[in-house]
Amino acid sequence: LTKNVHELLARQSSVVAVGGHDGLSGRLGQNAGFDAIWGSGFEIAASFGVPDANILTMTDQLRACQAIAEAVDIPVVADCDNGFGNAINAAAAVRKFEAAGISGICIEDNVFPKRCSFYEDTTRELTPAREHALKVRACKDAQRSDEFFVIARTEAFIAGAGLQEALDRAHSYAEAGADAVLVHSKKPTSDELLEFSAQWTSDVPLVAVPTTYDTTSVDQLAELGYRMVIFANQGIRSAIRAVERNLALLRSAGHASVLNDEMVPLSRVFELVGLDQLQADEAKYMSAEAVLATSGAGR
Ligand code: SPV
Ligand code: MG
User: Fold this and answer.
1) pTM
2) How many A from CA of 291 to the centre of ligand 1?
């Protein structure tokens, strides 16, 4: 296992990430076999019960992504929205996310405050392309290790700006030093991604988020040149479905046994949080045998 996204891209034809918002959701993603965890702004905001609209602070998102990184052995790529402000804010965020053990970030060309790409809106203003390219450059210049991975994301299609604008923006972000470029689309088919990749002339890998074009597979996207695929929010949406249903059952039944076949046993939670490791560590460092055996050393 590696936490280096560059290394994953070098050895695999595609890198598949799944969204998470806390240590447990990250660990479930790792257990399911995903290559990386996407610290989803959408999921983290939802977990706080607020819209995905720059309502949480940089520190809120940092703490959530740090909890994921501490819980998994695979890379965490943090959704840093628009970099929480200008190039200076974005570069400052890079230092903090990198120091927290997060493998990379993604910054999008939405103005501050951003709105989730899927919210209905009358207008969507994009950051001027040159300004976003410089923000990407500032992020690359701010990282301490060569391993840190910066994804530049364009919302040109989301804003209805068209193919040429999407291509021009994405090429300029690649030239500015982005390690990958995410092309977002909210169409029900992958047509925009297909048109885009047909005219993509850079070696910089492309990233897709197939939320709305949900029948397009990882393999189909890889063939088009989208070597990183992010399933951004399916985990929390699954959790909401299960919890809403089960809590309604519990409330009306009035006894917990109604859920015995609808939820995991306590032992599954024990496994997921590493109870076996805790018990091994207690035996190793705190048991009477351990204390007696080491009493000669240093005392
Ligand atoms: C997120 O997960 O917060 C994303 C991806 O930015 S999406 O919600 O699909 O725009
Ligand atoms: Mg987001």
Assistant:
1) 0.96
2) 50
CA angle (149 as vertex; 143, 151 as ends), nearest 5 = 115
> What is the atom index within ligand 1 of the atom nearest the CA of 42?
3
Q: What is the CA radius of gyration of the chain?
A: 21
φ, ψ of residue 297 to 5 degrees: the values are: -85, 110
Q: How far is the centre of ligand 1, averaged over its atoms, from the C-alpha of 2 (Å)?
A: 24
Answer positive or negative: Cα dihedral of 161, 162, 168, 169. Answer: positive
- Taking only the tens place, the pLDDT of each residue in 258-298 is 999 999 999 999 999 999 999 999 999 999 999 988 666 55
Torsion from C-alpha of 46, 50, 53, 59, nearest 10 degrees? -80
Q: 149: which DSSP letter?
A: E
Nearest CA to ligand 1 atom 2: 40
Point out the ligand 1 atom lying closest to the alpha carbon of residue 19.
Answer: 2
Q: What is the pLDDT of residues 142-154, one digit of tens each?
A: 999 999 999 999 9
Ligand 1 first shell, C-beta below 6 A: 19, 40-42, 52, 79, 116-117, 209, 211, 232-233
